[in-house]
Amino acid sequence: EAGVTQFPSHSVIEKGQTVTLRCDPISGHDNLYWYRRVMGKEIKFLLHFVKESKQDESGMPNNRFLAERTGGTYSTLKVQPAELEDSGVYFCASSRREILGTGELFFGEGSRLTVL
Amino acid sequence: KNQVEQSPQSLIILEGKNCTLQCNYTVSPFSNLRWYKQDTGRGPVSLTIMTFSENTKSNGRYTATLDADTKQSSLHITASQLSDSASYICVVSGANDYKLSFGAGTTVTVRA
Fold first, then answer.
1. Exposed/middle/buried for B29, CB within 10 Å: 0-12, 13-18, 19+?
2. Who among A42, A58, A109 is closest to B103 (CB)?
3. CA-closest candidate to residue A33, choices B42, B27, B43
4. What are the tens digits of pLDDT across the range B29-74?
C-alpha cells in the first residue's frame, strides 16, 4: 500500500510568486490534513478535509493560502503570492477515521518551501 | 507559549547506550499522547499512542510512559543504534483531536 505522497519535495521561489503543493493521501483515507513547520518552530495544524469538504481551516494563516481537494482524492495547497515567512516544510497527513482518537495518522515526507 | 514542551532540545549518545526524552504538556482536555520519530528529510512516523488510562507502552526498544496527573511523558530508547538518530516529537491530542499540539522535538544523534 502506498503511503502519503507529496510533491514537490522542495520548491524555491521568489517573493511574490505562486507555488502549488500537492498531496496524495493513502487510498481510502477520507481525512486529509495539512500541517506546516516553519524554521525553528513546532509543526502546526493548517486544515482538515473530510473527502472534498473543508472540515476545519482555522489554522490557515491568511487568505494567501488556498487548499482544495476536488473529488475527494488528492489535495493541493496554493500560496499566492508567497512571502518570506511562508518558508518552511508543509506536511500532509491522512487517516481513515474522522474522529482520530487513537487511530493512526500517516504523514507524507513533506514539501520544503523556500521563499527568497 | 507552546502547549507541548520537550527536553532536551538535542542530545548525543554512544551506540548501545540508553537515553530518555521528556515531554511536558498543558493541553486540556487531554485525549491522547503520541510519540513520533522523524528521520532527516522524511515525515514523522508513529512510535506509540497512549490514552489517559495508559501508563506505559512499548514498541521494540522504545518505551513511552505517561503520567496524566502531572501531564508528563517520557520516551526511553534502550540499547541505541545508529538508526535511532532522528528527531523525536511528542504530540498531544485534545478536544479537537486532529489539530494536534506538537512539541518542537528532541534531536537524537547516536555515534559509533
1. exposed
2. A42
3. B43
4. 888 999 999 999 899 999 999 988 899 999 999 999 999 999 999 9
Give the separation between CA A107 and CA B42, rounded to whole angstroms: 9
B1 has a pLDDT exceeding 80: no
What is the nearest CA distance from B80 to chain A, expressed in angstroms?
24
Closest listed residue to residue A74, CA positions, set A19, A112, A20, A12: A20
Compute CA A84 distance to the chain's CA centroid, rounded to the nearest angstrom.
Answer: 18
Residues of B with CB under 8 A from a CB of A: 2, 4, 31-32, 34, 36, 41-46, 49, 51, 89, 93, 96-100, 102-105
Question: A46 and A64 in contact (C-beta within 8 Å)?
Answer: no
Q: Which of A105, A111, A112 to mutate to test the interface with B (most CBs of B within 10 A)?
A: A105
d(CA B107, CA A40): 12
Residue with cell 493548517: A46
What would the 3-class secondary structure string for A3-61 be?
CCEEECCEEEECCCCCEEEEEECCCCCCEEEEEEECCCCCCEEEEEEECCEEEECCCCC
